[in-house]
Amino acid sequence: MTRRIETVAIVGTGVIGAGWAALCLARGLDVSAYDPAPYAERRLRVAIDAAWPALTRLGLADGASRDRLAFASSAADAVEQADFVQESGPENPELKQSLLAELDAAALADVPIASSSSGLMPSQLQEMTDQHPERILVGHPFNPAHLIPLVEVVPGKLTTPSVTHSTSAFYFSLGKRPVLVRHEVPGHITNRLQAALWQEAYSLVARGVATVADIDAAITNGPGLRWALLGPFANQHLSGGAGGLAHTLEHLGPPAQEWMADLGRVHLTPALVDLLVAGMGAELRCTDETALVAQRDELLIHLILQKRGLTALP
Ligand SMILES: NC(=O)c1ccc[n+]([C@@H]2O[C@H](COP(=O)([O-])OP(=O)(O)OC[C@H]3O[C@@H](n4cnc5c(N)ncnc54)[C@H](O)[C@@H]3O)[C@@H](O)[C@H]2O)c1
User: Fold this and answer.
1) Between 3.40.50.1000, 3.40.50.720, 3.40.50.80, 3.40.50.970, what CATH number should domain 7-180 receive?
2) Would the pTM count as exceeding 0.90?
3) Which strands make up the sheet holding 84-87, listed edge to edge?
4) Is the CB of 13 under 6 A from ligand 1?
5) Which atom of ligand 1 is nearest to the CA of 95?
6) CB of 143 closer than 6 A to ligand 1?
7) Domain 190-308 - what CATH class?
8) 41-50, 191-200, 219-228, 304-313 — which is least confidently predicted?
9) Closest among 74, 83, 76, 191 to 135, alpha carbons compared
10) By percentage, how much of the chain surpasses pLDDT 70?
11) Where are the chain's structural domains?
């Protein structure tokens, strides 16, 4: 029988761990957190306070309280009473492997352990866990993790289907939108798609076709507006009119293949990194970044609330 989840352990409380902690508290759960960095508890409580107004607007569960956060003095202490573990330490394969082995040794045997890893494959993360690798998998969120619904659920070779299922069900109960990655690949689904876009964006800047600001403006005023509502396939389907996706692929598929053949392949050399960072600086020269984040979150909350009632959208 699947364990009832009342206490969630968050191990690693940087950008993503803090988002998970805030979300779990808002859903009325107890959170047991650990991070070895100096002042980590203080930093976590500040991050949760910053996230709380948005989470309140999205709706707090009965009993939700920031007081239900406990900060442990070790990773083992954080997980030993937990019903679910979300690991959010640094994206370093060796560190993650040894951290997961430590969590595996300390957590109760039937407790799922999900890693937030952006791109590591769960089978690699299972390599050093000799106790219960079958309860280890990837649960990859998107930043800001307390607001963006997507979480990619990626089972490894040794993960049992019941763990994959109960983890997805738990994320769903948090208000997340789990998407199962059916076959593990580096970068899962969405970071591979993002990497394809980043590669071409970097290449267009390197070739002088567009500036960093031009590309950000083109995406946010064009395809980005549609992508929050319909995915790349449904958008192409609608572009085909009555003929749908079949017509789009017949009509625009051949030219798109030519564009694909011309796509850039970039290496992030120091010179290219400097060019991109300088372009970013130029784009934000007159922008208050605190206001930028606040406005992003404000619109995101509106969109999430509006989408809740629209059942035709995916
Ligand atoms: N930032 C993103 O946009 C994003 C999105 C999705 C997933 N992720 C993934 O989430 C994970 C965390 O990324 P982040 O952006 O929050 O990084 P971060 O650097 O903000 O946080 C990592 C935290 O891990 C802590 N840490 C270091 N050693 C540790 C240990 N031994 N045990 C526990 N904690 C330890 C650090 O002190 C730090 O607070 C990574 O696997 C990353 O790939 C990041």
Assistant:
1) 3.40.50.720
2) yes
3) 69-71, 30-34, 7-11, 84-87, 113-115, 136-141, 150-155, 177-180
4) yes
5) 31
6) yes
7) mainly alpha
8) 304-313
9) 83
10) 100
11) 7-180, 190-308
Residue-wise burial string across 36-45, b where 16 or more C-beta atoms lie within 10 A, e elsewhere? eeeebbeebb
Using a 6 Å cutoff on CB, does residue 19 contact ligand 1? Answer: no
Mutate to test the pocket of ligand 1, among 10, 11, 16 (most ligand atoms within 8 A of CB): 16
In the chain, the amino acid numbered 279 is G
The predicted-structure confidence for 173-228, as pLDDT tens digits, reads as follows 999 999 999 999 999 999 999 999 999 999 999 999 999 999 999 999 999 999 99
Which of 41, 100, 116, 171 to mutate for ligand 1's pocket (most ligand atoms within 8 Å of CB)?
Answer: 116
Instruction: In whole angstroms, give the CA distance from residue 51 to residue 56.
Output: 9
Query: What mean pLDDT value characterizes the chain?
Result: 96
Summarised one tens digit per residue, pLDDT across range 103-146 is 999 999 999 999 999 999 999 999 989 899 999 999 999 999 99
Using a 6 Å cutoff on CB, does residue 191 contact ligand 1? Answer: no
Q: Is the peptide bond before 144 cis (omega within 30 degrees of 0)?
A: yes
Probe ligand 1: pick from 79, 92, 118, max atoms within 8 Å of CB? Answer: 118
